[in-house]
Amino acid sequence: MRLYETMMTECQMMDKRSVSDGMGGFTYEWTEGAEFKAAIVKDSSMQARVAEKEGVTELYTITAEKGISLDYHDVIKRLSDGQIFRVTSVVKDSETPQVATFQFGQVTAEKWILQ
After folding, report:
1. Which pTM was predicted?
2. Going from the N-terminus, what domains does the chain have, and what CATH number goes with each?
3. pLDDT by residue (tens digit) across 15-71?
4. With contact defined as beta carbons under 8 Å apart, do 66 and 105 qualify?
């Protein structure tokens, strides 16, 4: 088992959909979607710490198996503590090459609150 695999935890996609509010308008509702495993690591670089001091939300790197397609602004929940993250990059930009003996993709994400 590889190091990144030992760090993986159960996660779940959060799906957003619009629902009628009964008065001619609509609101948004979040529902739990597919489950998958990912390693979620807080960005503790100096740049990230300075940004946090200036009011930017906490930043993370999410690593998942290559078949897991995490797209820009996807929302996921870490099941161990219910923490929500919103993806802020595209997985296609950070996937391992086909010749690699290990296959994964990475995205950046921010700590987020369902709205």
Report:
1. 0.82
2. 3-14+31-112 (2.40.10.270)
3. 999 888 889 898 889 999 999 999 999 987 777 677 767 767 789 999 988 888 899
4. yes
Which residues lie across from 107 on neighbouring strands? 62
The candidate with the shortest Cα–Cα distance to 39, out of 87, 13, 3, 89, is 3
Please tell me the distance from the alpha carbon of residue 108 to that of residue 53, in angstroms, as a whole number: 19
3-state secondary structure of 84: strand
User: 85 is written with which tokens?
Assistant: 């993250």
Q: Are strands 104-112 and 59-65 parallel, antiparallel or unpaired?
A: antiparallel
- Alpha carbon dihedral 88, 7, 102, 86, in 10-degree steps, equals -10
